[in-house]
Amino acid sequence: MLVREQVPLAPYTTLGIGGPARWFVEGTDEESVLEAVRFARERSLPLFVLGGGSNLLVSDEGFPGVVVRIALMGIEQNGNVFRVAAGENWDNFVTHAIVKGFGGIECLAGIPGTAGGTPVQNVGAYGQEVSGTIAMVRVLDLNHLKYGELPAATCGFSYRRSIFNTTHRGRFVVTRIDYKLRNKAFPVLSYPDLKRYFRDRKDTPTLAEAAAAVREIRHEKGMLLVEGEPDCRSAGSFFKNPVVPQAQYDAMVAKASAPIPVFAAPRGMVKIPAATLVEQAGFHKGFAMGAAGISSRHTLALINRGGATAAEVVALRDLIAATVEKRFGIRLEAEPVWLGPEAGTPATTGR
Ligand SMILES: Cc1cc2nc3c(=O)[nH]c(=O)nc-3n(C[C@H](O)[C@H](O)[C@H](O)COP(=O)(O)OP(=O)(O)OC[C@H]3O[C@@H](n4cnc5c(N)ncnc54)[C@H](O)[C@@H]3O)c2cc1C
Q1: What is the pLDDT of residue 192?
Q2: 115 to each of 44, 82, 101, 182, how far by Cα in Å?
Q3: Residues 199 and 149 in one domain
Q4: How far is the centre of ligand 1, averaged over its atoms, from the C-alpha of 179 (Å)?
Q5: Position 343 in a domain
Q6: What number does the ligand 1 atom closest to the CA of 169 have?
Q7: pTM, full prediction
Q8: Residue 20 sits in which domain range?
Q9: Domain boundary residue, one of 27, 45, 71
């Protein structure tokens, strides 16, 4: 195992922000991941598991513990089950599955990061979530230092949530995922943007056409990573869509000066687009605060306009959240994970 020291983390994140990791290990197989955990434990250091850094805000001070970058590679197919190593690029896997004629993840095209990152926040977009296809997640259980397999039913998937980012945060390192896909499937075109895109089509689009449409729509919204485009230096949506009781929504609408859309959510709750709240609180696309700002194409994407510090992004995040709370009584929840000096406990995956 090669352990590097003082490795700058900014290049490992899509925001391009963050100080160094005191210790840095590439986890290229299950043994090296285990060794990195042991290395941290022997020195009582905190541990952080890094995927593609696309849902991450790293502090300017960096991280004083051990960062293990998940770099396990390989895709195996057994019938309609694709066994994908956690370090595989997610978007490449989507393309791989589609080329083989398998559907179920075509609407998740263009999402950056690793396959291992997808179960963590139950990645979702344009009418699909990975929980719709995940059959099993292989993990290193840090409580017992043993590898094992978690069936999807035990992963607690819901909107942007799983046991990996809630009840069992920091306990598991994901090393492999089984996705159960559908052979010769028709694409899911339930999302309004996709319906609109294909409204003049008489025949059913192919999976590849659906994925291409998703990528094009994402590009228009600055939600596709394209080299050199400043709107791309983000961590995706910075705020989750709030899920609140219907009564809270009704009370809010009564006081609002403009319409606020709403969508049904499980257990009688409703989901409100965070973008609407942010816009109505006075933050528009292209808003700038120092070197941090809001994407010119997406209200929810906070961006690094060039040379931004984590402190600047945090200041903008907090200003938006406080203004929305004052205006609507709703506390927006940040989506990206924060990695700072205080994150993590000895040999856990950080927060
Ligand atoms: C332009 C852009 C668009 C995006 N669009 C979407 C979208 O449409 N929908 C959506 O859901 N997300 C979206 N995201 C967010 C992000 O891409 C996903 O959350 C992605 O799955 C994160 O994976 P990652 O490998 O980059 O994880 P990282 O950012 O490296 O890590 C995120 C968290 O997951 C943990 N983690 C990562 N890998 C593992 C592992 N193997 N085992 C245990 N824990 C792990 C980390 O410790 C950390 O807590 C977008 C981001 C960007 C930049």
Answers
A1: 92
A2: 29, 11, 19, 18
A3: yes
A4: 17
A5: no
A6: 49
A7: 0.94
A8: 3-71
A9: 71
